[in-house]
Amino acid sequence: MFLVGLTGGIASGKSSVIQVFQQLGCAVIDVDVMARHVVQPGYPAHRRIVEVFGTEVLLENGDINRKVLGDLIFNQPDRRQLLNAITHPEIRKEMMKETFKYFLRGYRYVILDIPLLFETKKLLKYMKHTVVVYCDRDTQLVRLMRRNSLNRKDAEARINAQLPLTEKARMARHVLDNSGEWSVTKRQIILLHAELERSLEYLPLRLGVLTGLAGVAILLYLLTHYLLPYA
């Protein structure tokens, strides 16, 4: 099995693309949801965050106050790196657990929805394929203004705060162009899914695991039939 990192930009249509992949029966892991999960009370990352940043980052119910924590690390690279050092290992553990579940269920690939895939580059090395949901800037601007009821200035400020989609598209292995009709985008998704399903890149890992299991089975057989009777 292999991993596919999928990203996009504000108002590029990434959520709609993810829904189509799910309708096609694909396994999808939302890394943002996972990041919120690992900082819940009772988890190691939650305890470490409170130890490092203090109880002022807690809500009354014990949950992390994401706004307060965000304000604490805003424009402070050292604190941001410290927070990342706490949360990223836990996110990777959860990612591996979820991925292994899909592996056992026979999926050939898993899509990871990662908003900052190319900005942080932390998870890039695990991705066999990368996909960007792209749309041209004018389309992105119009969609964002309509969706969020923003004026042009505010919408442009939000778009400018992100890595440009043209740069993400340049770095990605696959680009889904969502600038035009949705039917055209949907056809691109279906074709990409078919390409990934046909790929044999999942075989090495699956064969390696099967070989390992076969080795364990043979060892157990030898132990039970030849060694244990003389014990």
From TrEMBL:
Superkingdom in the source lineage: Eukaryota
InterPro entries according to UniProt: Depp_CoAkinase, P-loop_NTPase
Residue spans crossing the bilayer: 207-228
GO terms assigned for molecular function: ATP binding; dephospho-CoA kinase activity
Pfam families listed in its UniProt record: CoaE (PF01121)
PROSITE patterns: DPCK
Classification via CDD domains: DPCK
One Gene Ontology term, aspect cellular component: cytoplasm
Keywords, ordered alphabetically: ATP-binding, Membrane, Nucleotide-binding, Transmembrane, Transmembrane helix
GO biological process: coenzyme A biosynthetic process
Annotated family: Belongs to the CoaE family.
PANTHER family xrefs: BIFUNCTIONAL COENZYME A SYNTHASE-RELATED, DEPHOSPHO-COA KINASE-RELATED
Protein name: Dephospho-CoA kinase domain-containing protein
Organism per entry: Cebus imitator
